[in-house]
Amino acid sequence: MKRIINNLGFWILVAMVAGIVVGIAMGEGAAVFAPLGTLFIQLIKMLVVPLVAVSIISGAATLGGSRSAGKIGVVSIGYILLTTVISIVIAIVAGLVFQPGSGLSAESVGLINAAATASEQTASTPGFWDTVIGMIPANPIKAFAEGNILQIIVFGLFLGFGIAALSDDKRGKVNAGLNYILEALIWCIGKVMLVAPIGVFGLMAEATGTFGFDILLKVANLLWVDLLAVLVMGLAVYPLTIMLLSRVGVVEFFKAMVRPQIIAFSTASSMATLPVTMSACDSLGISKQTSGFVIPLGATINMTGNAIYYTLVAIFFAQFYGIELTMAQYVAITVTASLGSIGQAGVPGPTLMVVAVLVSAGIPIEGLPLLYALDRVFDMIRTVLNITGDAACAAVTDRFAE
What we know:
Layout: H1 2-5, H2 8-26, H3 34-64, H4 68-98, H5 115-123, H6 128-134, H7 140-146, H8 149-164, H9 168-192, H10 196-211, H11 214-218, H12 220-245, H13 250-256, H14 258-267, H15 270-283, H16 288-301, H17 304-320, H18 327-341, H19 354-360, H20 368-372, H21 375-399
């Protein structure tokens, strides 16, 4: 009992249930608790940018001076790209087999016309080269100020490898300083996580009170198919890669990931879960050098949960509007969902990149407001898979680190 009482994950679960109950009881009035959730997320955001920056710089500086740097980069990014494509294939198969969008109509779900808004979002969606160029910060200070995580990672990698090029004496001093700062930041986030139950209560109460269960029932087909695809990826593909490509036992891996997964589900934030995921990797015997490099990188570009969601949404609306997708459209969905999932911010919020996926396949985007209302629910599900993939990537990469 004492262990349960002192378990943060237990209190987060209690807070989730309490938030749902209060949200149902108070309805839209539960929005009064929204500031509690906003405050918690704001505290996390305050520490995310410096944590990611220092982790990436420290990891790159440490690895850059070793023979394993090239291997770690190739293995981690290759693993991320491969699993992203696999997740999209799983989503396509699930969408074709279970037909989540069949049997629905705009009238049956009270769909509103949002063509003007969607057009504005589409116009602002970057193309391939815009995305690539946008990864490189013209002004690193501006990237830090705006919290552009992808640009911060690119700059951090360059600076880290620059530090690695210094003499051993100089590099050792800089690395020591970076590690001290990293320890201090992790301490700060650890203290912020103590108020996680309060923040989770506010988030769940507000979401449940605002949207209720009626709208959930209207897109229940998409929700359970998305969950099924996530389970296949999380309980079949990732365990298989861990078993075949890492030194970590599958059972031990999932035992260590229970707490990060609970926090990921409740906060819907890969970034909020980042220090807990890194701690889980430490308990699995994964080197700090590898986890410090791979986990922050994965929290930004390893988004298999998002890729599954984007793909299923495209298939859902294609079936919704009675559109027979061609092979070219499936290829467009695969490519766009892959690119769209890379660099998606690891914090909760509406996923506007799904617009690009729909447009690439010529699927109407008027139905998106229906899903934006439920984005929080989908976000919690896909975030669990995202952080599981980050840890799996670290486990696989660590085998090749020597």
